[in-house]
Each structure stands twice: as structure tokens, then as C-alpha cells.
Design a protein that fits this description.
By secondary structure, this protein is an alpha/beta fold. The chain folds into two domains: 4-62, DNA polymerase, domain 1, CATH 1.10.150.530; 67-340, TIM Barrel. Helices cover 33% and strands 19% of the residues. It has twelve helices and 14 strands. It has helices spanning 11-20, 26-37, 51-60, 120-123, 132-143, 166-176, 197-206, 221-227, 230-233, 236-245, 268-277, 303-315, and strands spanning 4-5, 61-62, 67-73, 79-84, 90-98, 101-105, 109-110, 128-129, 153-156, 189-193, 211-215, 254-260, 283-289, 320-322. The strands form three sheets. A ten-stranded mixed sheet has the order 3-4-5-6-9-10-11-12-13-14, covered by helices on one side. It has a two-stranded parallel sheet with strand order 1-2. The longest helix is centred in the last third of the chain and has 13 residues, at 303-315. The two termini are 29 Å apart. The model has no long low-confidence stretch (mean pLDDT 93).
Length: 343
């Protein structure tokens, strides 16, 4: 018999599960508190449950429990975690403090299929999708490490393409934002996609409340075809149409993430193209100077080049932010820590 992972269920689904098991409804609330507030994944340690119920749960249910393999702390306070999954594979997540904000960068896949040339995760290849429970448990584990025991913001920008693991990602979003679980507010979650246009349209139907970001990185189809092979399937025109259709509450904008790489996408002409593209839908622009690594030959541009690029965008009336990498001393970029572990 297949056992049900209780970390993959919303509060309503947990209640249905408990009722079908012949237990009283209040047991669902007790289990919920153990799993999502106390961070306990062992039924035998849920001491306010009867011994008979604990025994029954061990037979019909299970609980995802990521095993922390490595934890590193940066000089800037960033925490990087490497987790071992039940099948021996590894994923990463990063907890970034910023004043009162505690932002967790969450992975959605082991590896990635998209093979973006600037991304270390893609070099490792794709192993499998994460379950909803494995996505959610990254948040639960991080709460136990965060100051004050809370994660204020979640960004789905870690290993993998969230919209390539659509079903599990959306289920995880529903669990994270379930008011009974109180993990994180829906307005505090950002999903980043490399440009899976049909997934953007489907997300608009299934979970439009989430904030949306797109990893763009160039507005030249030929360059993007080479840099991000997903562009061959969903070129810039198709991507822009999906982004323009995405329903946005008043005042909200889609974040354009632009990893700026020396000699590849940092020219004045590149900035002018981005300036025009960004008017196709309500947007703001995050410029991210490339985080160099030995395995990839791309180079980080100078600060002066990044500021010149930003000035061109600002002159066109765009909101532009230069984002500096956090945790560079602890290999906080996606895939850097995982490659040190044996998979």
C-alpha cells in the first residue's frame, strides 16, 4: 500500500485523510501543529496522539524529512543548506537575512532540464522533480534556523525550473500559503521562470496570486537561443505575450531578472533592447552582475559597466535595481555546494 506523505497535503486534505482513517477531526489540527509549527516528522514523537493512532499513521502515512548534509554561514549572515533526499540525491536552499526580512531561496527540482549556459545547476543535468513535500520542507527546516523562527519571504529561484515541475510546485504553494499552516503569506512569494510560456499561462489560472519573475538576460533571440535553449521553443515574442496576459493586482509588476555578463549582454545596444522590451508589460528590472565560477567561462562586468547599463534603462523611465550576490564566500550560487557532494 502506498503511504501518503502528510507534508504534501493542505489542511483541508489532511482533514479528509483523518476522517477517512476513522479518526476525529481535531486530530488533523494536532498533526498539523506537529508538522508545520513544531517541525516534528516522526509520528512516534507526537505525544498527544494516542499510541494506536501513532501506530496506524506509521502504517498508512509518511512525512518528508530532509536531512541536512552541510550548513554554511557567510560573513554577511547568509545561510546555505545542502539537504540529502531519501533517495540519496542532494538539493540546496539559501536563507538570506536583510533587515527584518528573512528570504528563503527554494529549489523545485534536482538539477534542471533547461541547460542555461550561465547556470551551474544545468551543468549537473536533471535527476528528478521534487515532491510538494520536499519543496515545503525546505521552508519548515529554514524556520528552525532563522532568527525569530520565521521565514518572511520565499523565492522559487533555487535549483530547477518551477514551471517544469508545475503540479508539485503549485501544490507546494497552496500548502505554504494555507492559513492553517501559517508558513508564509501569499504576497511574500515570488516564482521565477526561465520563460516556460505555457506554464505562465497555466499559473495565471491555477495560482495567479504569486509574484512572478522572469529570468530574461537578453532581448536578442539569437543570443538567447544560445544562452537559454528554452528560447528556441518559446522565443521572446511568445514569452512577452504570456507575461502581458498574466493577471496583476493594481500596482504590482513582473520582475525582469537580467544576469549581466561581460561581453555577452552588457552593451548599450543590449540596454536599449531591454528598455523597449520592458514596456510590453508592467515591470521592474533587477540587474544581477554575473557570479563567476571555474566551470563556466563567463566573466563579471565592471561596476562602471553595470551602472552605465542601469542608467540607460533609468533614462527610459524604468525602475532598476542592482542586486549584489549574497553568500559568495560560502558557494551560495545554485549548484555550487551540491557539486561538492557525491550524488
Amino acid at each position: 500500500m502506498n503511504r501518503i506523505d502528510l507534508k504534501q497535503l493542505t489542511s483541508g486534505q489532511t482533514l479528509d485523510f483523518i476522517k477517512k482513517a476513522g479518526e476525529k477531526p481535531f486530530r488533523a489540527g494536532q498533526i498539523r501543529k506537529w508538522l508545520f509549527e513544531n517541525g516534528v516528522s516522526d509520528f512516534n514523537k507526537m505525544t498527544n496522539l494516542s499510541k494506536s493512532l501513532r501506530s496506524r499513521l506509521n502504517e498508512i502515512a509518511t512525512v518528508t524529512d530532509l536531512k541536512e548534509e552541510i550548513s554554511l554561514e557567510s560573513e554577511d549572515g547568509t545561510l546555505k543548506f545542502l539537504y540529502r533526499l531519501d533517495d540519496g540525491l542532494f538539493i540546496e536552499s539559501v536563507l538570506i537575512p536583510d533587515g527584518k526580512r528573512m528570504t528563503l531561496c527554494v529549489s523545485t527540482q534536482v538539477g534542471c532540464k533547461l541547460n542555461c549556459r550561465f547556470c551551474l545547476t544545468g551543468l549537473a543535468g536533471f535527476k528528478r522533480d521534487l515532491t510538494a513535500g520536499e519543496i515545503v520542507d525546505q521552508v519548515i527546516k529554514a524556520r528552525g534556523k532563522a532568527d525569530g523562527g520565521r521565514v518572511t519571504n520565499v523565492v522559487l529561484m533555487g535549483m530547477g525550473e518551477p514551471l517544469d515541475n508545475f503540479k508539485n510546485t503549485v501544490q507546494a504553494l497552496k500548502i505554504m500559503t494555507d492559513p492553517d499552516f501559517r508558513l508564509v503569506g501569499v504576497r511574500k512569494i515570488t516564482l521565477s521562470t526561465a520563460g516556460v510560456a505555457p506554464g505562465i499561462d497555466l499559473l495565471a489560472q491555477e495560482f495567479p496570486k504569486v509574484k512572478l519573475a522572469v529570468s530574461l538576460n537578453t532581448c536578442d533571440d539569437a543570443v538567447r537561443d544560445d544562452m537559454m535553449p528554452i528560447n528556441r521553443k518559446y522565443p521572446l515574442k511568445t514569452l512577452a505575450s504570456s507575461l502581458a496576459r498574466f493577471p496583476l493586482p493594481k500596482g504590482r509588476r513582473i520582475t525582469i531578472e537580467y544576469v549581466i555578463i561581460s561581453g555577452i549582454n552588457d552593451s548599450d545596444e543590449d540596454a536599449e533592447k531591454l528598455k523597449r522590451f520592458a514596456f510590453k508589460f508592467p515591470s521592474k528590472i533587477n540587474l544581477i552582475p554575473y557570479n563567476e565560477c571555474q566551470e563556466i567561462s563567463y566573466a563579471r562586468p565592471s561596476r562602471r559597466a553595470v551602472e552605465r547599463f542601469a542608467d540607460i534603462l533609468i533614462s527610459g523611465g524604468h525602475s532598476v535595481f542592482i542586486r549584489e550576490s549574497r553568500g559568495s564566500d560560502i558557494m551560495a550560487a545554485c549548484g555550487q555546494l551540491r557539486k561538492t557532494a557525491k550524488t
